[in-house]
């Protein structure tokens, strides 16, 4: 089986986050995934990360975003679709406390749901 890895670029602009938030979403115990097919003919895959203050102080939010970045590198580079934007949203307590393998499983389920 020939698996091609996708290069991920980061979403930085608020406008892009809002466009993704208006499209498909899938909630899982460890995270919320929002996805959008840009339909612009681009082959790049973009990903953004966000954690609200409900998750905790700045240290906790940054740790949660680091965990989300790592699971997206492990999963979206293989299962993400070219031309799509994804936003991973951290959940209070569970994103920080959930086992890494369970977070990857949550993201895999969310990707299937968003793509269907």
Helix content: 40-55%
- Inertia-based shape: globular
* Run of helices and strands: EHEEEHEHH
Strand content: 15-25%
Count of β-strands? 5
Explain what this protein looks like in three dimensions.
- With 116 residues, this protein is α/β, with parallel strands linked by helices.
- The protein has 4 helices and 5 strands; from the N terminus they run E-H-E-E-E-H-E-H-H.
- The protein has a 5-stranded mixed sheet, sandwiched between helices.
- Helix 2 links the parallel strand 4 and strand 5 (84-90).
- The chain is globular.
- 32% of the residues are buried.
Q: Quick summary of this structure?
A:
The chain has 116 residues and is of the alpha/beta class. The chain has 4 helices and 5 strands; from the N terminus they run βαβββαβαα.
List keywords for this structure.
116 residues, alpha/beta, Ribosomal Protein S5, domain 2, five-stranded mixed beta sheet, 5 strands, 43% helix
Topology:
Elements: E1 8-10, H1 14-21, E2 24-27, E3 31-37, E4 45-50, H2 58-79, E5 84-90, H3 94-97, H4 100-115
Parallel strand pairs: 1-4, 4-5
Antiparallel strand pairs: 2-3, 3-5
Helix pairs in contact: 2-4
């Amino acid at each position: 089986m020939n698996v091609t890895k996708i290069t991920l670029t980061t979403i930085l602009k608020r406008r892009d986050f809002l466009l993704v938030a208006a499209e498909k979403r899938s909630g899982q115990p460890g995270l919320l995934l929002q996805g959008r097919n840009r339909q612009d003919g681009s082959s790049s895959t973009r990903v953004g990360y966000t954690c609200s203050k409900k998750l905790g102080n700045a240290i906790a939010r940054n740790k949660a975003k680091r965990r989300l970045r790592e699971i997206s590198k492990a999963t979206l580079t293989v299962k993400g679709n070219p031309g799509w934007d994804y936003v991973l949203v951290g959940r209070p307590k569970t994103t920080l406390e959930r086992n890494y393998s369970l977070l990857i499983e949550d993201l895999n389920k969310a990707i299937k749901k968003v793509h269907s």
